[in-house]
Design brief:
disordered C terminus; 76% helix; MetI-like fold
Length: 307
């Protein structure tokens, strides 16, 4: 006897697989088009002589390397500050907090992700920056022998360190949400077995939860890094334009996204090509970060506690 429900199910599976394939191909096509646009528009700046470039950059790499440095420093600060807090909050929500409290904290974390980046930028420029000034003065006074805090300290607080703090708040919801979902998926049998053997709650987390979630935590961190690398408006509002410096508490430094946001509307000709070439560099950096993250995840996946 002909089974209509089975035939409809097979037809639905075929339609779904076709749609999934088309979606995957579409994503690759869009990515390829973006890459082709960036490369095509960047060629004039990449091949131009020093006398053809706008400004006093010397050559393109003299111009873009300080921007790369500022981008990487701001993103590194954001990850250093956000990662331990995000993992701790996710662990508290998933394994320690009462159900009602965990739901409330989870709601607040999700709400942070919904705040527009321009609001974060305005907060960093108008509120956080001035609040950080006394800290910067203290760092210069007592830790000024370290090049990172050598000063002079900014009087406005609009520094690369302030930008990093703002970015850490922005990437916190992303890392926390992903880690929370991964921690919740830890096999209960593993947790119960550790507790049955006499392990404390923290020992159970170290033996069962963290090994299972290792690859997911790395993925969450790299996703947060991608957000920090590409953030534009918040960093643009916080930073004071200036040349690259290792001094984290003084004026100066700029990132690739903020440089593009500040100058692209009025740019034309060679200047426009320079900015698009800077965008190409950021595209390559982001792609490299994602590839490294995928390699790390695949390398450690077989050692997951879920096996």
């Amino acid at each position: 006897m002909f089974d209509k429900s089975s035939s409809a199910g097979r037809a639905g599976d075929k339609v779904f697989s076709t749609l999934a394939l088309v979606a995957g191909i579409l994503i690759l096509a869009v990515l390829a088009l973006v890459a082709a646009f960036l490369v095509t528009e960047s060629i004039p700046a990449l091949t131009a002589g020093e006398e053809e470039l706008s400004g006093e950059h010397g050559n393109f790499w003299t111009y873009v390397l300080p921007l790369m440095g500022g981008t990487i420093i701001a993103s590194a600060i954001a990850l250093l500050l956000a990662t331990p807090v995000a993992v701790g909050v996710a662990l508290f929500i998933s394994h320690y907090a009462p159900r009602k409290l965990s739901q409330l904290i989870g709601y607040v974390i999700d709400l942070l992700a919904a705040i527009p980046s321009v609001v974060y930028g305005a907060w960093g420029m108008a509120t956080l920056g001035p609040l950080m000034v006394p800290l910067y003065e203290w760092l210069q006074t007592y830790l000024g022998w370290i090049p990172l805090f050598s000063g002079p300290a900014s009087t406005t607080g609009r520094t690369i360190l302030t930008a990093g703090v703002v970015l850490s708040v922005m990437v916190l919801p992303i890392i926390t949400s992903m880690c929370r979902e991964i921690f919740v998926q830890t096999p209960k049998l593993h947790e119960e077995a550790a507790l049955a053997l006499g392990a404390t709650r923290w020992e159970m987390v170290k033996m069962s939860v963290f090994p299972f979630a290792r690859a997911g935590i790395i993925s969450a961190i790299m996703l947060g890094l991608g957000r920090a690398l590409g953030e534009t408006m918040a960093v643009t509002l916080v930073l004071s334009p200036g040349g690259f410096t290792w001094n984290l508490i003084g004026a100066g430094n700029q990132t690739i996204p903020s440089e593009i946001a500040l100058n692209f509307p009025e740019a034309f000709g060679m200047r426009q090509s320079e900015l698009i070439a800077a965008g190409l560099v950021l595209f390559v950096i982001t792609l490299a970060v994602n590839m490294i993250a995928r390699w790390i995840v695949n390398r450690h996946k077989e050692f997951s506690g879920a096996n």
